[in-house]
Hints:
- The protein is of the alpha/beta class.
- It has a seven-stranded parallel β-sheet with strand order 5-4-3-2-1-7-6. The chain has a seven-stranded mixed β-sheet with strand order 14-16-15-29-28-27-26, sandwiched between helices.
- Helix 1 (21-30) crosses helix 11.
- The longest helix is centred in the C-terminal third of the chain and has 18 residues, at 776-793.
- 45% of the residues are buried.
- The model is unreliable at 1-16 (pLDDT under 50).
Amino acid sequence: MIIFIAIFLPHWVWAGPTLSNKKADSLYLTMTPEEKARQLIWIMVDGNQDLAELSPNSISENGGIYLTRPFGAFDEYIFNRDFIPSLSLQLDHRLNPSPEELDNLPTLHTLASIGNEEILLEYFSFLKNLCKSYGVNRAVLPDGNETNPREAELIDLIHSFDPFFFIAKSDISLSRSKKKKHIRKVFDEHSFWAMSPSTLVDLESSIQKHARRIEFSGHQIDIKNALMQKYAPASDIHKRKLPNKLAVAISRESIIPIQKQAGVLPLKYDTICLITLRPFSPMAQMLEKYAYLITSKDGIQNSQAPIVIDNLDVDLKDYNTANRCIIFMGELSQGLQYDQQIDGALLTSTYNSMYEYELPQILMGAAGASGTMPTAAFNNYYNRPLLGTGRLGYAPAEMVGLDQESKERIQEIINEAINTGSTPGCQVAVAVDGTIVMEEGFGYLTYDSLIPTSNSTLYDLASVTKVSATLLAVMKLYEQGKIQLDESISRYLPEYEATNKASITLRQLLSHNAGLVSYVPFWKKTIGADRLEPFYYEDEEAEKNDTRSYGLKPTPALMDSLKNWIRLSPLTRFDSIPSYRYSDIGFMMLHQVVEAVAQQPMETFLDEHFYIPLGLNRLTFSPMEKNIDRYEIAPTEYDYYFRNEQVWGQVHDRNAAIFGGVAGHAGLFSNAHDLIIIMQMIAQGGRYGDKQVLLPETIDYFNQKYFEGNRRALGWDKKSYFSKNASQNASINSFGHTGFTGTLVWIDPEFDLVFVFLSNRIYPDANNYKLIRNDIRRRVQDVVYEAILSKWIN
Length: 794
């Protein structure tokens, strides 16, 4: 039964929709002692029957209703702010205002295992707003558990977060005494006085009689808050879902790592034996991304690989455990039986589906864990934080909001691209919060649909080479103190002293602010009378028959000619200071600077400092020279102008081709997986795994804009509404780069997001701009951002 109550307000009540602090001060001064006392009195009810006993005046005159339990299924409508001006709600150990409606909130026990105070404070803010969305003005915290001091500490922390909203139960008196000294004692020792409707009737005359003898100076703030909260608008009812990002953080931070000795966790094995009743569970599927998984009992018996127990009650005597590492993953209550039998564990307070994905990440070192043991258990084990290695882990796309609907939208956009001839196929990789949530190949290498795109397919990165190769080398040399960005290029390349480029600085080259023309077809200079320079032919017979071999390296004489053509290339016209103009030539020049300063080929320098330390074996120049088969590489255009053949396995860019496939502006090949590792390293301040390949301050310095009217940083492109180079939802601090072949990398620190899109849109014709005109890359990126915004962050 729903009770409708007409509220009759006392003489001092503010009639407006809200009550300001100044107005509350004024009202306080006009209130009688009895009216002040009544603002501190709560009427205890347990349901609508208790509520029916109350008169409208008793509700309006006193401090409001105190519901002594969380909301039930229909209580939200019974205890509605339209009928009850102020409502205080008792929370239990679940810390959930409506357990029947909200089943994914962390309990007090779970929160007690979290040591990260920043996460806790963020959750307390959410919990406060959640309670307000139900019309709750104050939430009463449960009593602390004397046997669990950590839970008691947490209750104190919640109270201190907002002591006027989160009320300690000890601040509430339940006295029934009518005596003057007891009434005074109630207000001397407590903030509020809670009583049943029948007790209120019994104490009515005593309160009227003795109120003037109560000292209210210590209650002034409570009374003013009581007045203001009565007329504060309720929060938005639609913001009741715990944001996925916060839910994941809570789940991760509440996982408790224990070890018998340091170094047991994380596991460093390529094979794992999993004792489970669910060999095809999400947890098993996640583990298979890190290691070879054995789940059959015979296989486990015959292996010496570490054993992982999946939240089961197992008699380890049934297994061959001699000299093997044994790890339990699951609920603390289940794991207690293995005390002294296991080498380590990752423990959770309760079951949560998110643990299926987070436990494997922590087990294999892709993420850290810092949960603290909330009870006295596993006393002979170390409970110390585990630091993640900083390597990309794996999680389902749904975790960050990329649900089935979002994935179908991405598939529709890519199907449109393939069906309209924008590209025969592509790869998309997305990492959020340090985990890969999407890594997928779509379509085929060519329109005849013979070879499907896989996650290992290599794509020609085109100008993405600038930021995944040349820029990395320049940043490394800069932090080594071997180059200065405001020095002219002639300091590092003396042959430029007598040219029109002598005073151009490295900073100008990196920002495309050097006055260079956008493009010069140097490759045309290698053609004479429809024949190529002799170095393109393996022998005289090949030259006679015009049988060209593009795998050959340019001769030293041709390389000298190329460098001279660059030095003699024209500049754009400008008055005194050059303006922004995107140019490949600047990065050709930076390539020369890198090799001159490093005293070794740029490719070798990159391998030594980046690609090999990061374990990247699918990111390379000249892939066919590295024993990568042609059919593992997406082809690009059929080149009628220069090579008279299908370009497949060699760099598409003709200027890069005459450099032998290794150039500062183009030439790099990769799959999305290796490329997202490079970008994640940048997003993590130059660190990936246990390798610090660049310093955070170096990355920050290069990710700044230095020229007025130029959107570009040093090497990096920045978000531009004019060029539409990134999603409209990308933050202003995001950065990345695009490539002519249909590639895009984008890093957004505010969203913890790395996005990679690779395609061969120029197959078989480089004049095919449908992928760009139809905005395919950005539309896919839009879906990712929209999903993250709606279902991850909010």
